[in-house]
Specification:
It is a single chain. With about 210 residues, the chain is of the alpha/beta class. The protein has 6 helices and 14 strands. It has a single domain, classed as Ribonuclease Z/Hydroxyacylglutathione hydrolase-like (Metallo-beta-lactamase, Chain A, 4-Layer Sandwich). It is globular. Pfam families: Lactamase_B.
Length: about 210
């Protein structure tokens, strides 16, 4: 069994997810949002407090708010970075976009060490995450579905009562709606959704209540 711990950080309140195996305490860090030294400290303090041993670093997609902490996590924990191949240009342009927004400079992310594709699985101890390709908000957005425990790490694809924005470079509204309808809505009603921003929800709730669908 696994536990999902949420840490909300940085100027756009992005959710960093520490998903860990309850027995071994091995953890996947999804989308480290730590931007300032204080946030980096908070991330490490949380990992230490929970007694975790980070073993994987994965970005659901590479908008700056989801990759701010990549360099810190790679340096601190010696992890390899996995992303979808279509996100590489987004990852590379992140520091420039941050500058364009007038924010303090970010430490550029290391290059990805490997690519993650739809149909593959990511393992954590005895837990398995199916990779679902859900483009639209970003060209290479991927979600990670733990079928056995019925939850999904959804990035910025689906939010509680909302969906990812599609006005950013390489975003596309129809593609995003298509991804949600074909990849996420077929999941069971009780599937818990852990989004990149805001509170958790369930697939059933969003099927009934989400005004964008
Ligand atoms: Zn995003
Ligand atoms: Zn985001």
């Amino acid at each position: 069994m696994t536990t999902v711990h949420t840490l909300t950080q940085n100027p756009v309140q992005e959710n960093t997810y520490l998903v860990y195996d309850n027995d071994t305490k091995e953890a996947i860090i999804f989308d480290p949002g730590a931007f300032t030294p204080a946030e980096e400290k908070e991330l490490t303090a949380t990992i230490d407090r929970l007694g975790l041993r980070p073993v994987k670093l994965i970005n659901t997609h590479c908008h700056f708010d989801h990759v701010f902490g990549n360099a810190y996590v790679v340096g601190k924990y010696g992890l390899q970075l996995g992303i979808h191949p279509l996100e590489q240009p987004i990852l590379e342009s992140a520091p420039m976009i941050v500058q364009a927004y007038g924010m303090p400079p970010m430490t550029p992310s290391p290059a990805p060490d490997y690519f993650i594709h739809e149909g593959e699985t990511v393992t954590l101890g005895s837990a398995t995450f199916e990779v679902l390709f859900c483009p639209g908000h970003s060209p290479g957005s991927i979600c990670f579905y733990n079928r056995q425990e019925d939850y999904i790490i959804a990035g910025d694809v689906l939010f509680r009562r909302s969906i990812g924005r599609t006005d950013l470079p390489m975003g596309d509204h129809d593609t995003l709606i298509g991804s949600i309808l074909t990849k996420l809505m077929p999941l069971p009603d009780d599937t818990v959704v852990y989004p990149g921003h805001g509170p958790t929800t369930t697939i059933g709730e969003e099927r009934r209540e989400n005004p964008f669908l």
